[in-house]
């Protein structure tokens, strides 16, 4: 209940940080196990626990909220001993334990840590220590049935970076520049007199004059204070806090502030990196870098909106928007399995879903469309990417609960036109005084109702629940009919002239035939009106390029993606961003900030373009009928402004690779790898069978390649596992 660091015989046990992590503690209380054999010694042994408030009872949210999960900090521990003769003994925390205060004077996730090294208690977790003056602990009630073992990768220092420079700002501040907006903390060494106080303040950006800027942190202090004991070179790093920052203002440091005295410890849930994407366009490579770092900084046990201000919460909308991209970059199977279990635990009896998971906000309101849909989209995406039906099985009631919740809202069970919705959050077609784009909220809500119902039907099918599969398919069909009646004129015009509205109906398959053609044409016109700029917010942006490519406008998608002027994905990149920004104009063209009140420079949502880079430009995708990349689709969109693309994805079957390079004279070389025990459908754009070779042979005669079709669009083949090198002449685009 809180955070702990465990010590045995004076040594820290393990390298897991911010333990026990963050879950919906009142329903699921996590614990960790460690093999401590090596730390034991002959004779006396001693165990100690340091505790801090953390998520459990520290400051959470922007309203100075505390004690979100309980009033007391507490620790529960068991030491299981197996003796050489096979006998066993268990030692546990009980009333005989003793407690005292230590050098950590303040520790808060948002605000930092204050450590007075003069108060260190030498040897406190060793057996020789005299604890006569320590007080007895207080026993608190803790329902043991809530205990769950660690479910996902622990948080660790995943990498360490050094400041790239020490700045002296116009305001006279000494500031470390880490060269990267990062999440974690600073480790440093110092030689000072006893009582010398060093303060580190953390910020994401400098203002337009080059001064240290913390306005966007709101009430989060992000301040680490260290008071020297005056004992030669001292080294310190915090334990019970983390900061989101690129710049560190150093105050009170005795002697010269040199980069070598400071190390940035990058902390996140220690998941395996599974994907990489590289191409001939340096700004797109930086964009991919920013997407990945947005993920690192916000996958700190819970998928959070941001890692720096007084928020850092598991916003459901943001998570569903980014989930597929995240699954390319890293193995997020356990990470999301844990999180959707919390979602299920926090879901209301009527199926409603809190805005954030773990839920610390539901007193205000809950269940917005496109946010609550995380209940369906996240487990479905995990199934899609990892092919494990257990997650669908476990989450099925939660998924169904959400769809039934929507069905029960308002008088019309086939539309969702009641209640509160965030809408197209931060869409640029918002009114001056609003955060929400102008796409009608009932259109968004009803479109997501249809989408979640369709996914639920697919999930039921994957689980062999035939009746449900059929009944949600038919519910979906009816929603679609209602949707068309409500939002599309008989002539095929969509009532809302916004990019996001057009994107949603195309993406979710709410229009067909002639209407579809009209909707895509209108979307392209809307984009042209903006001189190839987007106006979409959180809801429309993730799908924008997908629907353009899918419907024959890949060139328009590329113009948007390669657009460098505001608003665009590359605009922040040209401004030196190293992570994704919350706003398209976090820093405006004139260098001023969007606003102080909600301006994160590390918000992964718009990083959702990453899955389009992997899925479309590199062309790596799976098939929901043979999920988890059992059957793979390789359909690279070669050319169009790139000379080469190299992508790899470490699937659960092994490495999938898709690389292509276009030579000056239009010869395209596509190299792919298909892992063991899988098969792939390969579609090569603009290829002609007669001139298409694999290795040295025409594909028509190549072994292991089954040509399926030659169409105007190209050649489609079925291949088994192995590596292939295709070559053909393509018109340069
Ligand atoms: C968060 C978002 C979140 C939103 C809900 C913001 O404060 O940072 O990313 O989805 O609130 O509208």
TrEMBL record:
Keyword Hydrolase: yes
Keyword Ribonucleoprotein: no
An MF annotation (GO) of this entry: hydrolase activity
One protein family per Pfam: Bac_rhamnosid
Keyword entries, A-Z: Hydrolase
Catalytic activities: Hydrolysis of terminal non-reducing alpha-L-rhamnose residues in alpha-L-rhamnosides
Span of domain Alpha-L-rhamnosidase concanavalin-like: 168-268
Domain spans labelled Alpha-L-rhamnosidase six-hairpin glycosidase: 272-617
Highest taxon in the source lineage: Bacteria
Top EC category: hydrolase
Domain Bacterial alpha-L-rhamnosidase N-terminal span(s) in chain numbering: 1-159
Enzyme Commission code: 3.2.1.40
Coiled-coil portions: none
Domain Alpha-L-rhamnosidase C-terminal: residue ranges: 624-695
Entry protein name: alpha-L-rhamnosidase
